[in-house]
Prior knowledge:
Elements: H1 2-17, H2 21-30, H3 35-52, H4 58-78, H5 84-105, H6 119-130, H7 133-143, H8 160-177, H9 181-202, H10 205-233
Helix pairs in contact: 1-3, 1-5, 1-6, 2-3, 3-4, 4-5, 6-10, 7-10, 8-9, 8-10
Amino acid sequence: MILLIKLLLAHLTGDFLLQPDAWVKAKETKKIRAYQLYLHVVIHFALVLLVVWDITFWKWALLLAGFHLIADIVKLYAQNDKTRRSWFFADQLMHLLLIYLVWLCCQKERFTFPGLTNEYILLIITFVYALTQPASTIIRLIISKWNPATGNNNDSLDNAGKYIGILERLFVFAFVITNNWEGIGFLLAAKSVFRFGDLKESKDRKLTEYVLIGTLLSFGISLLAGIIFLKLSVV
């Protein structure tokens, strides 16, 4: 199991933390002519070797990198403005399926590296990170379908919504894994109170529905992550 967690952590880091938006746009514009595409794959290869910390794993790391390149190329040429969200999830599903298949072929617990051998700690790191940038990207892609017109509002801090979402997901995750479910209700109530004034003042039904969808998605992902973590940590 620990190898699977390491591969998932490497994937999440390479696909979200170490892939700037500028790279994504360059790949969508230039496709296979974009050097960012190949640099992205090289980073994935290096991350797998770094996280697994076993040079003999290089063949599997190369296989993962190669199929990652193929999956990304398929997505780049198959997607369009209307199917971008669908292909994002299809692409991620392909990557995760390959990671799972590689893990099935390599279920030997022979990868040891101080600090990354404790399965519980590694699970914590993986889930906490998954609830930050990856979860933000997923939620943004889902709710971008609606994107209500709210005018030019310069009263909001830069990226405030993004960081509020990250913090609330981490809080919910912490409440779930520590069995403090009442804290989730308190957090949801507190956010509702603070949001109520803005939504009431805007008198915009679309904005209200947009915020509600985003909030429920954020809480739902966090709850699911916490429940999955609890199941995996007792295996």
